[in-house]
Amino acid sequence: MKPLIVAALTLLSIGSTTQDTPDSRVQRVVADARFGAAMAAIDRDHDRLVSEIIKLTEIPAPPFMEEKRGAAYLEMLRAHKLADVERDEIGNVMGIRRGTGPAGGPLVAIVAHLDTVFPEGTDVTVKRAGTRLTAPGVGDNSRSLAVLLAMLRAMDETGIRTATDILFVGDVGEEGLGDLRGTKFLLQKGKYKDRIKQFIAVDGSGDGGSIANGAVASKRYRATFKGPGGHSYGAFGLVNPAFAMGAAMQKFSAITVPAAPKTTFNVGVVGGGTSVNSIPFETWMEVDMRSESPLELEKVETQFLMIVKQAVADENKVRSTKEGALTVDAKPVGDRPGGQTPANSPIVQIAMASAKAAGATPSLSFGSTDANIPISMGIPAVRVASGGRGDRAHALEEWIDVEKPASLRGIRALMATLIALAELRPTEAGSSAPARR
Amino acid sequence: MKPLIVAALTLLSIGSTTQDTPDSRVQRVVADARFGAAMAAIDRDHDRLVSEIIKLTEIPAPPFMEEKRGAAYLEMLRAHKLADVERDEIGNVMGIRRGTGPAGGPLVAIVAHLDTVFPEGTDVTVKRAGTRLTAPGVGDNSRSLAVLLAMLRAMDETGIRTATDILFVGDVGEEGLGDLRGTKFLLQKGKYKDRIKQFIAVDGSGDGGSIANGAVASKRYRATFKGPGGHSYGAFGLVNPAFAMGAAMQKFSAITVPAAPKTTFNVGVVGGGTSVNSIPFETWMEVDMRSESPLELEKVETQFLMIVKQAVADENKVRSTKEGALTVDAKPVGDRPGGQTPANSPIVQIAMASAKAAGATPSLSFGSTDANIPISMGIPAVRVASGGRGDRAHALEEWIDVEKPASLRGIRALMATLIALAELRPTEAGSSAPARR
Q1: B29, B25, B32, B34: which is closest to B6 by C-alpha?
Q2: Average pLDDT over residues B266-288
Q3: Which candidate in A120, A274, A322, A392 is best for mutational testing of the B interface (most B CBs within 10 A)?
Q4: What is the DSSP string of B59-82?
Q5: B366-425, pLDDT tens digit by residue?
Q6: For B218-227, how does the pLDDT look when each residue is reduced to its tens digit (9 = 90+)?
Q7: DSSP conformation class of A383
Q8: Is A342 helix (H, G, I), strand (E, B) or coil?
């Protein structure tokens, strides 16, 4: 799993040997004086973290409209000591924190998505009550974006160097119909596509204990029901796409799915029709289905496709098709591959050891995040939370708690994971090796 | 039914006596040389009628956005010999064709609505194939607007005078959620509210035979389903307003209504949700219900309100309400009163006699048009078509045929009705009485 060039560098390194265990690698990081100083800096810098969370949250970033937040984040990245800070052609913004190895070597990518699920016009003002911040997108994913910057500052301030380059990314297209296009571009087309060998998606709140090494596969559809339309009174009796869609929604809502492997379904957005007194000529709904099991996902998908077809056939039977029959077009609009980074792989073991070292209880789970793409490509990847507590992601009442202890615990786990994966090095080669060496 | 002042004028008039039958009044009109000349002018002027239909159709006039078409129609009214051409504060545009009676007397109002059901952005380009014009709104109601102008020109050119003033109106708010606000304003608040004693709504295509003296009552609702919302995967299991709405749509689609008295129901517009991967916190649908019978309408309304309530209660039972329960708010957004202008009233009898005189077969029907308001207020009113053939109103494929014979037949019935109601007078008082007197 570890690429050759990293193996080669490892031989030159002072901190790791081929006998290293994940635990010992993490222990070396958290015991390093600079790591302690970095955590102290993050503690001291806490208010700035909070104000950057608020700043980012209050820049709307609806799906496909991440531009403004991306531009702001690009400027924030520029204010740190990064090389090649830039926006790529899909809209991801990023910069490299150079390691001690030769330029052009393998990278650890750490990414937080810029976009939210909330449409244009949503009030994104952050309401603060004590340590609780309430606003759409505040935890999913503004905190993560701000935590990346806080870690950068702390690592710079305390002279933490790593062998491997680290790519810090604010990416687009994680939510809604974005279909992970930011991460797909990064790993499949972007300039670093062949260099990214380890991948951390920072997403959501939590103390670092919940590590997602499994990628929930998902299928998304936009089903469009079309008919002749007409006057609600004059043409009464013609097939109505809203009626067929209603029947499909009702039936879809009643399917059964297993609790484990966790399998879910959703009607997320609906629309269509021109006026109250017209039979619509078109209605549509957007549907999301997910499962930890590809087999269960396929079952749900098959049922969904049968249900919409059947609903249209039924409506064509009970009402008149003399002006034309109803049709339905179920168009795939998202297909997130699933998979799993093996539990015994170094990245998972290091993330778990880091959580333990931060005082959290590690557990492995499934998620549906930017990590789906690397996982499906066989690139070792995990999703780790950004610290603290929070809930109600994707709801208007989304909130996070920014109380310090829980915030620091999460960041400690995350930063230990990042530095252990990128391999800690002395500040100046050979000159200021930490005492404990 | 006939107001005193009209009765008084009648005594002075040359063309009507208290023994007049509707038939004889219409016969006197259609036998008048000027009426024949006016129809000849409309025949000659046919291409202008068609080009004005196209011009008006291609100015979008979505519900509540009639301003541009209203402004254009105001200019078109100004180009004719009308007094007091103006736009009222609700957006109706109008002008008076003065009769021979004293100023400020009773009025015959002839109205055609400016608005269409089609939302902003709909392609309203008219596609022409032979005598067939296809475009959203072309028959409902651009033709009627253009026919009003064609009649005006023909009456002016041939010196047709009437005892009673005629108010020509292009009105707003007939369609969608407009809730007849244009006509309501005209009859309940506008400057002519106490003067309008007879009312003709010109609406849709047809040869003048179909006369609507009945007003279909309608009720309209916007039902909004609200819930806590949440992440489609993380919060799976929470109540989903789209599921409740789907169940309500499905059940509503299955209610039974009588064919006579004609009773209808429709889900016309649906919307809601923020993203495919979020449980919506809100979805909504707009519903239209109509009946010739107030009792049947009430039955449908009661069922609708029960169905949405029950759908929400069911969803609250089968899924989790731990973050909040679903609610539904069914808000009335339209209430068109019903009623009937008696079949034996002069306005209905004159419209039927005019249809017969034009070679059409008169029949009485129910409609839901601007005429609902005067009918509900006890003001004699009918809806008459604007001539020709057409179909698919409220559909994108709406079309009319502008072949001349059918167009002229409808206009002949309409113009005869209008002139007979306003009472034909000689061109110059006493000086040029038609030969047949």
Answers
A1: B25
A2: 97
A3: A274
A4: S---TT--HHHHHHHHHHHHTSS-
A5: 888 999 999 999 999 999 999 999 999 999 999 999 999 999 999 999 999 999 999 999
A6: 999 999 999 9
A7: E
A8: coil
Task: Name the residue facing B395 among A229, A240, A245 (closest C-beta).
Answer: A229
Which among A79, A95, A99, A98 has a CA at the least distance from the CA of A87?
A95
Q: Are residues A356 and A204 in contact, defined by beta-carbon separation less than 8 angstroms?
A: no
Interface contact flag, B176 A397, Cβ < 8 Å: no
Query: pLDDT of B345-373, one tens digit each?
Result: 999 999 999 999 999 999 999 888 999 99
Query: What's the rounded Cα separation, in Å, for the pair B243 and B431?
Result: 75
Is B316 in CB contact (< 8 Å) with chain A? no
Sign of CA dihedral B206, B210, B215, B221: negative
- The phi and psi torsions of A61 (rounded to 5 degrees) equal -140, 65
A59 pLDDT more than 60 = yes
Give the Cα separation of A379 and A391 in Å (integer): 29
**pLDDT score at A12:** 42
What ipTM was reported for this prediction?
Answer: 0.77
Instruction: Point out the residue among B220, B229, B253 whose CB comes nearest to the CB of A396.
Output: B229
From chain A, pick out residues whose CB is under 8 angstroms from the CB of B175: 275, 277
Please name which of A115, A129, A70, A132 lies closest in space to residue A394, comparing C-alpha atoms.
A115
A3 CB near a chain B CB, below 8 Å? no
For A365-376, write each residue's pLDDT tens digit. 988 899 999 999
Contacts of B326 in chain A (CB under 8 A): none
CA dihedral of B50, B56, B58, B61, whole degrees rounded to 10: -150
Q: What is the pLDDT of residue B3?
A: 37
pLDDT tens digits, B176-210: 889 899 999 999 999 999 999 999 999 999 988 88
Asked if A176's CB is within 8 angstroms of B281's CB, the reply is no
B261 touches chain A (CB under 8 A): no
B122 touches chain A (CB under 8 A): yes
Query: Are A230 and B395 a contacting pair at CB < 8 A?
Result: yes
Contact yes or no for B235 and A274 at CB 8 A? no
Query: In A407-429, which positions are buried (b, 16+ CB within 10 angstroms) versus exposed (e)?
Result: bbbbbbbbbbbbbbbbbbbbeee
Identify the pLDDT of residue A373. 96
Q: Which residue of A has its CA nearest to B275?
A: A176
pLDDT tens sequence across A388-435: 999 999 999 999 999 999 999 999 999 999 999 999 999 865 444 343
Q: Where are the beta strands (DSSP E) in A263-404?
A: 263-272, 278-279, 282-291, 327-336, 339-340, 363-367, 381-384, 389-391, 399-401
Residue among B302, B314, B242 at smallest CA distance from B275: B242
| Separation in Å, CA of A116 to nearest CA in chain B | 9
SS3 A131: coil
Distance (Å) from the alpha carbon of B131 to chain A's nearest alpha carbon? 21
